[in-house]
Amino acid sequence: MRIPIVENQSPEYVLQQIRHVTSLAMNAAEAGSLEDVLQQIADSARELIGSRYAALGVPNADGGLRFFKVSGVSTDDIKRIQHHPVGVGLLGSIMEAREPIRLNNMHTDPRAAGMPAGHPHMESLLGVPVQIGNQLFGTFYLTDKYNGLPFTEEDEWLLEMLASSAALAIAGAQLREQQEDLTRMAERERIAMELHDSVIQSLYALGLGLDFASRVEVIPHGIIKESLSGINKIIEDIRGYILKLNNGNGSNHIPVREHLEKAVSDLYIPPNLDVRIVASDMPTSLNYDVLKGLKSIIHECVSNTIRHAEASCVEIKAVEERNTFKLTIRDDGMGFIPGEATSKTGGGLGLHNIQKRARLYGGGVLVESAPGEGTVVTVQVPMVRL
After folding, report:
1. Structure pTM?
2. Alpha-carbon distance 219 to 203, whole Å?
């Protein structure tokens, strides 16, 4: 891009214009969402050149237009237009050639495809691609200057300069948009994992209790009461996980043993399974989010033991060292071959979630098992404190 030769031009004038263009682009970059950025860039282009109308088209992967932001056309006028631009004719030519174009009368150009019914009358055209290297981010389309004169070489230079800065602003907005999409995906994955690790396990435990009750002629009042309590707790868990209402409430200062006992109390433990807890009666300083994760791991492991291991005893042991928190869950069940674990043997999604959750907190998981020799799951995470 070269600086055009215009009458009475001075270095101070050029510098002033550069500063003005840069300011317009920087303000647009801070507009917020991608669409807000695009709209402000279109408005800035119209202000900079003094044109009656301006538009910024952003291509899609199919060669059409993903966005087409206009400036200078009222909402009512837009509604009267038969259809939105689709990226053909002169608009498509600029996107394809990626070269500036200036026309005093766009209607006489052989590349023109005409305008849809209801479109405002426009005569002159200045089009400039918005790109960085070979990456096309969009195209400026400006029509009809307020002063009635044709677009000049200086107008083209100014718009090209704005296009260079606008490309960076659009790239930044697109990156923010992609980052937000990734964040939403990660949040969906977190919710799915929380639902599987805690809520679904609680539902399973509740189902076991109701199944037991259905096998007796007279349902004990205590089972009904516990079932209703369990349903209410599951509802609160869902609210806490999805709406993020569970904020810890200072539970870091509860003894480790109490945390483990609370995790076990959320599950239905059949009468033939003895659950032993080995842990300190001293309060823990482990980060609350890590405690929640370890609770979910206990739910998963004990549920797998109940469903698949045919065990008579499961021991949950927690040891808090200076730099490491070690959780061991051991049962005397039928065991399995870890490398061949499936959802029917306690592996699958459950084991995957245990490993993933431990890695999330900078830790690791060791699963030791063999047919007829029970299973030991050892989880170690660093002591991430408040």
Report:
1. 0.44
2. 19
